[in-house]
Design brief:
The structure is a single chain. This protein is of the alpha/beta class. The chain has 16 helices and 16 strands.
Amino acid sequence: MYIPVLNPSTAASIYMQIYESIKQDLISNRLLTGTRLPSKRLLASQLGISVNTVDTAYQQLVSEGYLEARSRSGYYVCDLGAQFPHAQSSFPENTNPKVQAAANAITEACIPVIDFSPNGVDLSVLPLAKIRKAIREVFEEDGVAAFSSCDPQGAMSLRNALCKYLRESRGLLCSPDQIILGAGTDYILQLLVQILRSVHDIHSVAMENPVYNKAYQIFTGLQVPVDLIPLDKYGIHMESLTLSRSNLVYTTPSHQFPLGIIMPVSRRTELMAWAWAAPDRYIIEDDYDSEFRYAGRPIPAISGLDVQNRVIYLGTFSKSLAPSVRISYLVVPPSLLLAFQKNLSYYNTTITHPDQLVLARFIDSGDFERHINRMRTLYRRKRDLFVQALSPYKQKLQISGTDAGLHLLCRVKNGMTEEELVDKANKAAAKVYGISSYYLFDKTSDAAGRPVPPKSTVLLGYASLSDDQIIRGVAALAGAWQL
């Protein structure tokens, strides 16, 4: 019977020793294709360890394509020749290093990585039949009119559909004339900066720290000064905002990225009071992940509280449909709408007219809202499965940010630094994202005032993962982090 070799003098976990021993025997052809490995219970008994430890090692080898799990039969060696060319023959010691490096690169590229990206979405449940129906209706009913020129603010049919949807789902009382459409958040923000500059001096824009990196890069790329404002448990820290030079604030109140804070109504009203205190102050409300709240009813947008027209609402379809749906929009106060029409209406809309008409029909038919409801249910179930899979390790894990959005925060209490956690996970074919990369420091930050990222904390997204990937991914992390 095959028994992997363990090294009692090494500091590596038993799980990792089993994993490495079997993997090396597979790659070196000491274990041949089709070989059946000992059962988990038998191997655990032979090595004097727990069944769970053997199971974790086996599951990692299955996830990387070395072993195949056959129902009611056991674990078998896969045919590595097709996946790992270097397994077919061993290289002599004097092999060209470039050839060896290329072979290693091919091997690494073949290992299936479980990516816990916080930006992923589940594309497998897109209502393609309903989208095809909307496309067919546009070309059958609108005909050549679908290819006609389009209003600089976007197609009126889509603006009407958005206006109705935002009123019903987010509590916004706006008119279609206040909506400006554009191809993606990056374009929309660049356009917004030009609109604002045409009527006001931008002293600086205040941004939550930790920060949404793309927005930060766009503002700084346009030479807009940025003041980084720390957060408290309710969201952006109001005292720090008041002391800043900013007359704009960029905020994600529905689900702060990346900490997941949901700003309560009390803090929203404080933010409104800040904006109303001076005539050139505006709030840019990025309603990030607002569709996906799992506890209670969604909190209305700040824009729904605005009676002095100081909130600029920003929305997108990148999470509700797909990242490749490059349609974003602004809902601007009347004063800024006039500024756009007077100073920037020479811009053509950056979204093709047919795409706008298709999305308008998809929303008007009710199919978009039904899709959102299905996705909310799906993501809630994935969230529950993820939390359940992590629960056996709760003594060493602190989980937060689970009430909304498509990712959670995981603080690991095993003595490893964030850098070590990310590195160990990557080596176990599980990609995670450290929280510290979202914390920035500017010249106004002193040693005492700099925000301190949570220790040993990573972001774990689950939206794009299957149930099997979630379970195998957690097993890989548990082994890599020695939980």
